[in-house]
Design goal:
The chain is of the alpha/beta class and 418 residues long. A seven-stranded parallel β-sheet has the order 3-2-1-4-5-6-7, sandwiched between helices. Strands 10-9-8-11-12-13 form a six-stranded parallel β-sheet, with helices on both faces. α1 packs across α16 and α9 crosses α15. It is globular and about 70 Å long. The two termini are 27 Å apart.
Length: 418
């Protein structure tokens, strides 16, 4: 059996969709001929999810230097306690962060991950290296190992980096140069949509493959009776690139009609701070529930207990960084076989992925009347259709695709002239 060394900062017990993706695919790799060895930090500052279980026999846990704590020692107490952006001290804080966080706040993991990975490769020689971002620090570790060992290296970008960079001027030039260097020096690049695949190819990657997010069918096997007229949104909302207002306006209008008077809007996670005003405007303020953070298994149950799931897509398909953005929860929403209202650009990758499914309604941003008609259609016949093929989006299918990618990278590396 071949072996792959995997650099993953976000790995159980750390939560989030990136962590779910990694552990689910890694756990399936041995079934398709690849044994993973994951290097990951022992702890982190992020949310822990007790429902995510890692195969500890295949994980190397490391320490890390917490730069947030180290940076606190460089900032005078009065500055650290100062208010936000409007305060002069905010500039001092920003300068310290700018100096320390290169390329990202997880750079303190680099020396520990590199040392642990070198030891793991000595004890268990590998055939390939796989790193996943964010953080970009994982790619820096993988690149160092790639240079030392000449093993093929696949760099996965679950999200774009420089396209969403908050920097400008010379700092932006530096991060763009680093991104271009990483994707050109890697044996190959993996990303999550076809548009982003094209984007990385245009930036000089040798080979690029699409490996979408997915779902574990075992988590959706039990049937759960939906709550009465519950529209549910799961995950983080990004108001600068997604549209929830169209769905809120449509739901508010429906809730005033007698057949839908019991309708409830449920957020699995925190209530996005950008939305309370819109909810109040459309009469939904008293009809909203939110759960706060819930473990992944509870999140699945919440989706299964919904009448309809809301999936906001990108507000435009004119910019490739938005057109190629497919929310990770989209695939788990499909796995519930519940009706879905998708509000997003109709030519985005997410819309094209969802269009073949009969229980999905696709509405353009701002089309409130179209969203109302779609919701009426969904609520009139919420029974899921049978026979839809979701197998390509299961984690076992994605693991098989990753195995083929790794094997191809090994062949490419062997045939390369160094």
């Amino acid at each position: 059996m071949r072996r792959v060394l995997m650099l993953h900062y976000y790995f159980p017990p750390l939560g989030g969709m990136g962590s779910v993706r990694v552990v689910k695919i890694a756990s399936q790799l041995p079934q398709v001929g690849w044994m993973p060895m994951v290097v990951s930090p022992r702890s982190g500052p992020d949310v822990y999810d007790p429902s995510l279980v890692a195969p500890e026999a295949c994980v190397v846990r490391t320490a890390q230097l917490r730069l947030r704590r180290a940076g606190a020692g460089l900032v005078p107490p009065a500055v650290a306690r100062a208010p936000g952006r409007g305060h002069p001290a905010a500039g001092v804080r920003a300068l310290v962060h700018r100096w320390l966080y290169r390329p990202d706040p997880q750079i303190g993991w680099y020396p520990f991950a590199l040392r642990a990975a070198r030891r793991a490769l000595r004890e268990h020689p590998a055939d390939a290296i796989f790193s996943s971002s964010c953080p970009i620090t994982a790619h820096l570790v993988a690149r160092a190992l790639h240079r030392e060992t000449r093993l093929p290296w696949i760099a996965e970008f679950r999200d774009l980096w420089t396209d969403a960079s908050p920097h400008d001027g010379r700092r932006l030039e530096a991060v763009v140069a680093l991104e271009r260097a990483l994707i050109r020096q890697a044996t190959g690049v993996v990303t999550v949509s076809d548009t982003w695949m094209d984007l990385f190819q245009s930036r000089g990657a040798r080979r690029v493959w699409t490996l979408t997010n997915g779902f574990d069918p075992r988590e959706f096997a039990a049937e759960i009776a939906p709550r009465r007229l519950t529209a549910t949104y799961v995950g983080t909302y990004y108001p600068d690139r997604q549209d929830m207002h169209t769905a809120i306006a449509a739901l508010g209008a429906l809730a005033r009609e007698r057949p839908y008077s019991s309708l409830t809007l449920r957020f699995v996670g925190e209530l996005p701070p950008a939305l309370p005003a819109a909810l109040a405007t459309h009469g939904l303020g008293a009809r909203v529930d939110y759960t706060g953070f819930v473990p992944h298994t509870d999140c699945v149950r919440e989706m299964m207990a919904s009448t309809v799931l809301l999936v906001p897509g990108p507000v435009t398909d004119e910019r490739p960084e938005l057109r190629g953005n497919i929310a990770g929860k989209t695939f788990e929403c499909l796995a519930t076989r519940r009706p879905i209202l998708f509000v997003g650009a109709p030519d985005s990758d997410a819309a094209r992925l969802l269009r073949p499914f009969a229980r999905v309604r696709i509405v353009a941003p701002g089309d409130v009347e179209g969203a109302k008609a779609a919701l009426r259609s969904i609520l009139a016949d919420p029974a899921p259709p049978s026979g839809e093929d979701l197998e390509p989006f299961t984690h076992r299918a994605l693991a098989a695709r990753l195995a083929r990618i790794l094997s191809t990278a090994c062949t490419d590396q062997r045939d390369s002239v160094w």
